[in-house]
Amino acid sequence: MTTSMQWHERLEKAIPWGSSTCSKAPTLLPEEPAVIVKGKGCRVWDADGNEFIDFRNGLGPITLGYQYPEVDDAIRRQLGNGIIFGHAHPLEAEVAEQLCELIPCAERARFLKTGGEALAASLRIARAYTGRERIVQVGYNGWLNALAGGGQSLPGQSATGKGVPGVPGALGELHHAVGWNDIAALERWFEHCGKEIAAVVIAADYAGMALGETFYPAVRELTRKHGALLIFDEIVTGFRIAIGGVQQYFGVNPDLAVFSKGIANGMPLSAYVGSKDVMAACDRGGTVISSTFGGETLSLAASKATLAVYKEQNVVGHLWKQGEKLWSGLNAIFADNGIPLELKGFWPCPTFMLRDGGSASWREKFFRAAYRNGVSLYNVSYVNFSHMDEDIAEALERLERACKEIAV
Questions:
Q1: Facing residues of 380 across strands?
Q2: Whose CA, among 30, 54, 147, 396, lies 20 to 30 Å from 329?
Q3: pLDDT digits (tens, 9 = 90+) for 203-245
Q4: 69-312: CATH topology
Q5: CATH architecture for segment(s) 3-36+49-67+314-406
């Protein structure tokens, strides 16, 4: 038994699901690595020393690359001064100011550790600000907020049945799931109970993100008409589609927004940001949202350094350019080999889709072959700032070998 498989057995025995993060538990063994022990630049290694060109990027947080020098150096410098204190640290102010400079809707910002809890904070703010209780959710907004029957319990996976296991029916009845770009369904909810809806929270659909050009403005108009807030889940899109996320790319400002995965190159940090008036709902005298680790300094130091790289170098442009080179190249390889898969969406974060007539088994066959050839992929795959031209070329060579292995 390999060292990686030994670790897999230990994880399965000690941890429900085999990992604290559901999406990190392997489903394609033995080809998929059971554990990863090291990352450098755009590559990772498993416990047996197998190397992979990586496009999972920690499920999205690694935007600059593993062990990115400026970020790691900032962490080391701050470690010499302490990790957390009983009072606020200057880094809280510095990073909050950076976010207010970079994000269009941000006039105030606060910090937590994960995107899901920051979204939960935003929903509480929306309810406190409006005095209303109902929430309409579009897309996957984190496990804490996967409360609506028929909503997404995990990315791309709808909850089964009318309710969600572990969610009281009374709570689930206040959360309503609506599909991406379904403005008619949103209008029906507002016609039905518009004076009770506190907010619409939207996570973009990766394959159909271009439809945001009309969808976001329509939702913005609808929420204003009915006095509800608009919340953008920018956990994936922030610092990737544009520095300021989809709100900057499409020119539509929400009342609140949540950022996390791209904010600190892998360190655990999230931010909920918004207008001064709306964020006042969690100020003194408002609803209490508080966490001991919200001001943890190593993550804030990493974020300060990461945001500086975004400002000084064309990181987002690199993600678009290298993403187009890789994913359009892979689409051509699929077509040449008769494989009914394609990458759809914006180049920094496209998703694998089946073409018409394709069997779901093709995705599994391709992913297994990709792992065998040293390329690590996910449903939504990303390039990072450390993927250079030679890395993209090598990845395409490996992926072409993988496709030829499974071509009919």
A1: 351
A2: 30
A3: 999 999 999 999 999 999 999 999 999 999 999 999 999 999 9
A4: Aspartate Aminotransferase; domain 2 (3.40.640)
A5: Alpha-Beta Complex (3.90)
